[in-house]
Amino acid sequence: MVIFMVHENCGVVGIFSLDGRNVVPFVIDSLRALQHRGQEAWGVAVPGKKPYRQLGLVSSSASEFQKIVKVYKSSAAIGHVRYSTLGKSTLDNAQPLKVKDLCVAHNGTIANVEQLSGMVGGCTFTPQTMSDTLVAAQRLVMHLEERGDNMTSAMQILKSEMVGSFCFTFLTDAGAVYAARDPRGFRPLVLGYHKETNTYMVASESCALSAVGAQLVRDVEPGELVKMSERGIESQQFANEKPHAHCAFEYTYFAHPSSIMEGINVYAARKRIGQFLAKKFPIADADVVVPVPDSARPAALGYAQQLGLAFEEGLLKDRYSKKGSMRSFIEPYQNSRVEINKGIIPIREVIEGKHVVIVDDSIVRGTSSAEIIKTLRRAGARKISLVVTYPPIRYPCYAGIDFPSQEELVAYQQDGAETSSSIIGERVANVIGADYVAYNDTSNLAQAIGMPEQELCFTCSTGDYTSLGIRPQFKTRIEMKGE
Ligand code: SF4
Fold it and tell me: Please, what sign has the CA dihedral across residues 377, 381, 382, 383?
């Protein structure tokens, strides 16, 4: 199957107050808490109005908040923060989107969007110009019209037509909020309750619930459709598929450390990952363990504690540079990613003359790692070992994380498809200038997360696309993005 790499991995929320309170302030605060899932654009939708959408961080619209809260006042709303690599970051691609009387926000990737677009009137699809979310929303609206607005039935059909991952929040002009999670549960989605205002909410992560003082009730189940309305919470399964395929990369990099997903706290999981790596790769002659900021910090701490080594903050982000506080991986353009990693400041007193073990969450292209190794060498490191919490990334993700084309993945470039992790580690060490690179493996990582390996997705490492039901033909970067 030829598939386009169209990414809409993001953060979504959906909120409904049974007491009729204005939930728009909750939307804004919860989206701020999900900012690590998308830095490019944000938006909010309420019934009967065109969605409000803005480029940039939620906080960059702070001067507008009072006006937004007043103009969009509603007891039902959905919201979105966007992270994408699709063409340019334009306002047209920001979400929520509106099709007829349905507003939609989406976290995930619809991999067969070209095929799906043929079902909504044959519009011309190019990955640079059209959103997979818009195509899915148009198709859903068609199904709703044919099925007397029965959302469960419409989702059953849509799900069978789509390949990929999704966590959707929907809002109807009649004021009902829906949330749907794909049958494999690739991306996280949780249900919460704010007691003081009798308000239900769904969000990509529980950190968004905490941000507004709501309690985590439970995960939205894979294949579940939740409806929030004056009748309270209603739930139906639109699909039942096993095994689940929760994204392992959420646990090592993407999710917020404070979040709880499938009953597992992300911070605790990351610390355990470090402990398990220390047992697998004990670098006994190391002088100091240093995290690559920020995601790998708990793993580095776990690694150091397990081996009784010193843990130090030897690399700091320059939070005052233009993009210093941003996450480099989810920046859409390579020059921005490099700019962020150039803004990492070493502390010479921690590094000079030492064998430094740095712990990082992943190596994708290798350019960021090479930049960090250079920084450590300039600061006088005697020897540099890099321990990576995620296994070698050798294959593109079609379930919502923006890895580049396969040809750009540094692990794949080292004959990665056939070679063992230890040999890839040796070769990648040469490429990035480290003395030693140790990659995690899927079994060790699953055990550290605390979930059966078969319930986690590791496709980007193994190349096994069974859970998506596809055998993709990989495209080049130019084919994917037109650049
Ligand atoms: S392919 Fe990798 S990044 Fe994508 S969902 Fe699976 S584990 Fe996550």
Answer: negative
Peptide linkage before 29 cis (omega within 30 of 0) = no
* Closest ligand 1 atom to 458 CA: 7
- Rounded CA-CA distance 204/34 in Å is 8
| Residue 67 lies inside a defined structural domain of this protein | yes
Judge if 305 and 215 occupy the same domain. Answer: no
Of all residues in the chain, the percent with pLDDT exceeding 70 is 87
What is d(CA 422, CA 424) in angstroms, rounded to the nearest whole number?
5
Structure-block tokens of residue 159: 């799900």
Structural domain that includes position 425? 267-452
> Of 209, 242, 275, which residue constitutes the final position of a domain?
242
Answer yes or no: do 328 and 439 share one domain: yes
Average pLDDT over the chain reads 90
Q: What are phi and psi of 329, to 5 degrees?
A: -60, -40
Same domain, 167 and 278: no
* Per-residue confidence (pLDDT) for residue 6, from 0 to 100: 42
| Greater pLDDT, 233 or 164 | 233
- Examine the fold and report which residue of 242, 277, 299 is the final residue of a domain before the chain moves on: 242
* 47 and 150 housed in the same domain: yes
pLDDT in tens, 337-353: 656 566 799 999 999 99
The question of whether 397 is a catalytic residue gets the answer no
pLDDT tens string 379-389: 999 999 999 99
Tell me how far apart the alpha carbons of residues 442 and 436 are, in angstroms, rounded to a whole number.
20
**Do 278 and 181 fall within a single domain?**
no
Residues 218 and 307 in one domain: no
Instruction: Please report whether residue 3 resides in a domain.
Output: no
Closest CA to 362 of 324, 410, 406: 410
Rounded to the nearest angstrom, the distance between the alpha carbon of 34 and the centre of ligand 1 is 19
User: Which residues fall within 8 angstroms of residue 315, CB to CB, at 6 or more apart?
Assistant: 290, 291, 292, 293, 344, 345, 346, 347, 358, 372, 375, 376
Q: What is the CATH number of the domain that holds 237?
A: 3.60.20.10
Q: Is the pLDDT score of 235 beyond 80?
A: yes
Cis peptide bond prior to 96, omega within 30° of 0: yes
Q: How far apart are CA 223 and CA 325, in angstroms?
A: 36
Asked whether 186 lines ligand 1 (CB < 6 A), one says: yes
> Which residues 6+ apart lie within 8 Å of 234 measured at CB?
226, 227
Tell me whether residue 254 is exposed, middle or buried, using C-beta atoms within 10 angstroms of its C-beta: 0 to 12, 13 to 18, 19 or more. Answer: buried
Distance from the CA of 214 to the center of ligand 1, in angstroms?
A: 29
Question: Which residue out of 244, 397, 468 has the highest number of ligand 1 atoms within 8 Å of its CB and is therefore the one to mutate?
Answer: 397
The CATH number of the domain where 334 resides is what?
3.40.50.2020
